[in-house]
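Deliverable D2.4 — example input (structure tokens):
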């Protein structure tokens, strides 16, 4: 799909470029904030799975830049934003970057070190695996990312803090809800207007972090297993009990963002430009080391090899 055609068919892609966001995902976090006011009183944040960085940009614009530019706040310490991803990211003002795998314990340790004894008020996680199209597999890998995020939460989030995580809705959604409820009394699954209806993605908005009394982060997996296993085998008492009959779990599900605003599943006409044709804007920040780069290099080298072989056979 060409850029102009995508501009027409994906209004949030176009708006992201116009407003200087690196990805259309920025609108998802902004719309979650419109509904849940997630940035109120926040000074320390962790952005998990952050590349190419549009959520980090939102954090920088909403938290860091206003604090830096406000003269009345010049004596206060500036907000701390730590962003992690497998991929490197171009710099963003006020954002500390860590390149690493969030499922790796060492990455969690690096994040914790940045907080140097203080705790985060908010942890956000927009992590997504490379989708295979095999629904169960994608949902399972996604749930592993959320659990990795929850592990980091149990180390860095302060009591009362919030955790926002991308989820894929599927057969284990109720299980995930029950697991999150162990730590957060208020859990809502939200679907921002900028997230397409055709996509199974939604966001768990978890409020008021309250780990069980005496909880030791080392025991996280034992505790989660008590609720049920991610494979959906309901081999323990509480999860299967919660999910059936009169005790069935009803998950609060909320559409958010201005509901009369742009619809991500609709095409919008391109704006009229005085005296000329509409010019599509370039992406704000192309990925600096995309995973497909190596594949493109290999394809180029292989095409080159084929051409050389063809030339050889023509010469002989
Ligand atoms: N929130 C980002 C933004 O607004 O620009 C978009 C995030 S993108 C949808 C998903 C990201 O998850 C990718 O950049 C990918 O590298 C990252 N990711 C997937 N698995 C990861 C892992 N195990 N550890 C760290 N990052 C991971």
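Example output (designed residues):
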């Amino acid at each position: 799909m060409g850029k102009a055609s995508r501009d027409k068919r994906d209004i949030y892609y176009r708006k992201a470029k116009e407003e200087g966001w690196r990805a259309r995902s920025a609108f998802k976090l902004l719309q979650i904030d419109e509904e849940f006011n997630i940035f109120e009183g926040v000074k320390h944040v962790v952005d998990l799975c952050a590349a190419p960085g549009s959520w980090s940009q939102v954090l920088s614009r909403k938290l860091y830049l206003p604090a830096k530019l406000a003269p009345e706040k010049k004596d206060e310490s500036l907000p701390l934003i730590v962003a992690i991803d497998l991929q490197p990211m171009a710099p963003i003002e006020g954002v500390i970057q860590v390149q690493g795998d969030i499922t790796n314990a060492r990455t969690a340790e690096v994040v914790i070190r940045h907080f140097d004894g203080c705790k985060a008020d908010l942890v956000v996680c927009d992590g997504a695996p490379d989708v295979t199209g095999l629904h169960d597999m994608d949902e399972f890998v996604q749930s592993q990312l959320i659990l990795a995020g929850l592990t980091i939460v149990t180390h860095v989030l302060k009591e009362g803090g919030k955790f926002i995580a991308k989820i894929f809705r599927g057969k284990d959604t109720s299980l995930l809800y029950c697991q999150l409820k162990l730590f957060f009394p208020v859990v809502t699954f939200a679907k921002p207007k900028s997230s397409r209806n055709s996509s199974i993605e939604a966001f768990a908005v978890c409020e008021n972090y309250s780990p069980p009394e005496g909880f030791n982060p080392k025991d996280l997996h034992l505790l989660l297993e008590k609720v049920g296993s991610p494979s959906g085998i309901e081999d323990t008492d509480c999860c299967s009990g919660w999910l059936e009959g009169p005790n069935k779990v009803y998950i609060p599900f909320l559409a958010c963002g201005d509901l009369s605003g742009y619809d991500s599943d609709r095409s919008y006409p391109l704006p009229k430009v005085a005296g000329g044709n509409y010019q599509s804007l370039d992406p704000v920040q192309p990925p600096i080391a995309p995973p497909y780069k190596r594949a493109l290099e290999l394809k180029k080298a292989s095409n080159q090899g084929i051409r050389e072989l063809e030339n050889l056979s023509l010469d002989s």
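Residues 22-23, 25-26, 49-55, 84-87, 101-103, 126-129, 145 surround S-adenosylmethionine (CB under 6 Å).
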